[in-house]
Structure to design on (256 residues):
C-alpha cells in the first residue's frame, strides 16, 4: 500500500482532520520512521529496522532555524496550531525539552494565540525531561487504541510490550489534562482477527477513559493507505455511536 514519509522537518500548514489549520513539525528523520511503536495503520508505513536509528537526528540548532523560518512563512495565511507529529514519535528526539521550550518562545513572539500540540504514544511520559517539556505544550494528544493489553499490543505493535496500567500511571503523573486519541479499525494479522469496536474492548476502553478523565477524546478511523492491507475503516455512524457512549460518561468527544 502507498504509505509515505514527510520529506521536510516543517510542513504545511495543512488542514488536519483533527487539529484545524496546522503547521506540522517533524523532529525525526525524513528518511525513516523513528518510533517505538509500529502501528498496523501507521501512515508512515512499517518501521524498517525497529529499534535502530539509521539516520542521525537533526541538530537542535538547525531545527531552531527551520522552526522559526517555518512559523514566519506561515503567518501570512494563518495557522491555528503548531503540531509535533511527522515520521514517528516526536518525544524520542534527544533534545525534545529544549525544542519544546524554543517552540513556545517562537509561538509567543509570532503567533501568541496559536496552540502547540503534541501527538504522542505516551510511552516516554515518565521521563523527567519529557515531563518538563509538557509545560510548553498546550494540547497533549495521547494514543490509546485499545482497552486491553493484548489488543493494544497487537494494533500498535510496540518494540517492548505496553501495559495499559503503566500508561495510565504515566498520564496521571502529569500535572495537566490530556486529550486521548483512539483509532478504530478492524482487520486480520497473521490469521488473527481484531476489531477494537467490539463490545468487550469498548467497555474496557471506556473504563480506562473514566480513570483518566481526559479533556477530550478524539475518535477516528483510517482515511489513508495503511501498511497492513486487511485493515478496514469503521463507518462514521459507528464512530458517532461510540462517541455518544463516551459523552454519557461526561467526557467531551471529537469524531473526525
Ligand atoms: S505511534 Fe504514530 S508514528 Fe509510531 S507507529 Fe504508531 S502511528 Fe506510526
Amino acid at each position: 500500500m502507498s504509505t509515505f514519509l514527510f520529506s521536510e522537518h516543517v510542513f504545511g500548514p495543512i488542514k488536519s482532520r483533527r487539529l484545524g489549520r496546522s503547521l506540522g513539525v517533524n523532529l525525526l528523520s525524513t528518511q525513516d520512521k523513528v518510533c517505538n511503536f509500529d502501528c498496523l495503520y501507521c501512515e508512515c508505513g512499517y518501521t524498517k529496522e525497529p529499534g535502530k536509528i539509521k539516520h542521525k537526528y537533526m541538530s537542535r540548532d538547525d531545527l531552531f532555524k527551520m522552526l522559526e523560518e517555518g512559523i514566519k512563512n506561515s503567518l501570512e495565511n494563518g495557522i491555528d496550531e503548531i503540531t509535533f507529529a511527522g515520521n514517528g514519535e516526536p518525544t524520542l528526539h534527544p533534545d525534545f525539552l529544549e525544542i519544546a521550550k524554543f517552540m513556545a518562545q517562537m509561538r509567543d513572539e509570532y503567533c501568541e494565540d496559536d496552540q502547540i500540540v503534541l501527538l504522542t504514544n505516551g510511552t516516554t511520559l515518565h521521563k523527567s525531561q519529557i515531563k518538563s517539556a509538557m509545560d510548553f505544550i498546550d494540547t497533549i494528544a495521547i494514543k490509546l487504541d485499545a482497552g486491553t493489553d493484548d489488543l493494544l499490543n497487537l494494533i500498535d505493535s510496540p518494540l517492548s510490550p505496553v501495559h495499559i496500567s503503566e500508561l495510565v500511571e504515566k498520564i496521571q503523573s502529569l500535572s495537566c489534562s490530556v486529550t486521548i486519541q483512539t483509532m478504530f479499525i478492524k482487520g486480520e494479522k497473521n490469521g488473527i482477527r481484531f476489531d477494537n469496536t467490539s463490545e468487550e474492548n469498548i467497555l474496557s476502553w471506556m473504563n480506562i477513559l473514566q480513570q483518566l478523565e481526559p479533556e477530550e477524546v478524539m475518535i477516528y478511523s483510517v482515511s489513508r493507505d495503511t501498511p497492513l492491507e486487511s485493515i478496514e475503516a469503521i463507518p462514521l455512524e459507528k464512530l458517532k455511536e461510540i462517541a455518544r457512549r463516551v459523552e454519557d460518561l461526561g467526557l467531551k468527544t471529537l469524531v473526525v
Remarks:
- Helices lie at 60-74, 96-110, 128-133, 149-156, 164-172, 199-212, 236-247.
- Residues 60-74 form the longest helix (15 residues).
- The first strand starts at residue 10 and ends at 16.
- The CA atoms of residues 153 and 161 lie 6 Å apart.
